[in-house]
Amino acid sequence: MAHDPIFELPVLQQWMQLVITHPGGIESGLNSPEAQQQIPLEQSELESVIPRSQQLSSLDRLRVYGNAYYTRLVECLGEEFPALKFALGEENFAGFAFAYLQSYPSASYTLDDLGRNFPQFLEQTRPQDRKADWVDFLVELARLERTYADVFDSPGMEELEPFNVHQLAAIPPDQWEQLTLEPAPTLRLLELKVPVHLYATAVKNDEGPTLPQAEKTWLVVFRWDYVVRRAVDELQFRLLEQLCAGTSLGTALSETLEGSPLSQEELAIQLREWFTFWAKWRFFSGNRLQR
Amino acid sequence: MTSPRLGHPDLGLGLGLRAQHYQHILDHQPQVDWFEIISENYMNSAGRPRYILNQIAEQYPLVMHGVSLSIGSSDPLNFDYLKKLKRLSIEINARWVSDHLCWTGIAGRNTHDLLPVPYNEETLSHVTKRVLEVQDYLERPLILENPSSYVTFAASTITEWDFLSQLVEETGCGLLLDVNNVYVSCYNHDLDPLEYIERLPHQAIVQFHLAGHTNLGTHCIDTHDGHVINPVWELYRKVCQRTGNVSTLLEWDAQIPEFPVLHAEVLKAKRFRDGNNSIEATEDEETAVVTPSKTVPHPTTSVPMEFE
């Protein structure tokens, strides 16, 4: 019997995976063309592959794995996106997660990667009514929570010295055109239409928040022991954006501050404030001066 | 003759390290003999979980237990995974590295479940080859755990215990005997758990697992969400008589209680070690009144994020 091609290991494994991960359940999985291609089988013949036990039919035994597959992974996504789950409610969240897992089944050895494409999936499947604020809210909330997950496990700056204002002061301004800064590996910039970070924190603190009003938000996400976020003004955000993209400090400043009413003196004060803030939270790990 | 436990020491009574207990462990430094980690929770982490693990590694012996090696899969071995596994094992001085006799996916997918293999010569040859490859790469014997399972295959021609025995003989790998899994699988497959533990190569057993499960009447599910029940303790007592003292670990992965409850649970194993033979009533088997479709087998363990 073991020499029957349907009992070869790759065939059995392909078949079993197709059956237990089928979104329509075990019966639909058994009858699916893909599973039938591996092992052509009537439901009544299932015992010839999966014997029954004294108390459970072959179908019910397979169903243990089928039930577990989506339940387990939806639960894992819920742990990664707790605020999104709160916003949608358990049932709606499970519906989105269930659809997502069909489009993006896990191909990684780690569950850390499971939700990597969830924000993108929500964006791709958003309703045609693009004016709907709540859709922006959901997509941005998912983006924020995925960013938190990334930052949580990335290499951090906890034990490294940041690039600070004194090091900057030691570089004459006429060399800033050649000066680039190295962002910390955990630094992320998020431009948002809705202040979803406040919502996520309120969910974490069990405050039961309601849908927030739309309000442009420029957020810097980083890690200092745990994940931290700071809202900044647009000017600072644009400068950080340029610096993180590898633009020299001189060019970044002139492009960002073009048309700014700040005097040279005011600019110097502003820069000192920003660099003190960035060093405090270890936004930049070093600098490079190209000669 | 191979030395007992492949020469590994008896580490005593340990606990599965879970994120919910990080702070308690760091603050109180409890008198736990050792901890077991889920390898995948730390292999990619350069953040707080890894930072805390490094602190715990300075104070306690650590063992690595994986859920994604997929030693029984027909897909090629993942050497990117193995590279990270090996690196972590060196960095935290893991006493040994274990995973399950199972497959987790095929065609590049991961179901994140521990799926059973059919037990026959073809599978034995396939798994033997892969265990040897993994051991060569890791430069240490692999320790494999008997899985909990809910189906058997018509393609199986040998028993699970014979399969494990032959695998040990042909590869020199060690066994992580999950006593709860023996109980669960034997319940589900109408087998005698005493025969199962009698027929194993006892000297290859490097470690025991103990855990709770959910009995749904018609079958048991390995949920890791409660106390170890009396019949499992009884099996543990029996196998301890055959093996002598072996590193023993309690797993508790759902509805995780406060640390002292977990610690007290594993300390119950003391009564069966050092040749002790007494049995005191602990937890009787109860049939759970739950929805089968909502009862999910282990593993679902992940490390929750912490943010402001």
Summing up helix and strand content along with how strands pair, one would put the structural category of chain A as mainly alpha
The amount of beta strand of chain A, in percent, is 5-15%
Main sheet strand line-up of chain B: 1-2-3-4-5-6-7-10
Protein structure class of chain B: alpha/beta
Residue ranges of chain A: pLDDT <50 for 5 or more in a row? none
* Distance between the amino and carboxyl termini of chain B: 57 Å
Largest interface, counted by CB within 8 Å of the partner chain's CB: A-B, 66 and 61 residues
Low-confidence stretches of chain B: none
The order of strands across the largest sheet of chain A is 2-3-4
Q: What does this molecule look like?
A:
The complex is a heterodimer of chains A (291) and B (308). In chain A, strand 3 (217-224) and strand 4 (226-232) form a beta hairpin. Chain A has a three-stranded antiparallel sheet with strand order 2-3-4. In chain A, strands 1-5 form a two-stranded antiparallel sheet. The longest helix of chain A has 23 residues, at 58-80. The radius of gyration of chain A is 26 Å and the shape is elongated. Chain A is built from 13 helices and five strands. Chain A is mostly helical. In chain B, helix 4 packs across helix 5. Chain B has an eight-stranded parallel barrel with strand order 1-2-3-4-5-6-7-10, surrounded by four helices. In chain B, strand 2 (34-38), helix 2 and strand 3 form a beta-alpha-beta unit. The N and C termini of chain B lie far apart (57 Å). By secondary structure, chain B is of the alpha/beta class. Chains A and B meet through helix 1, helix 4, helix 8, helix 10 and strand 4 of A and helix 2 and helix 4 of B.
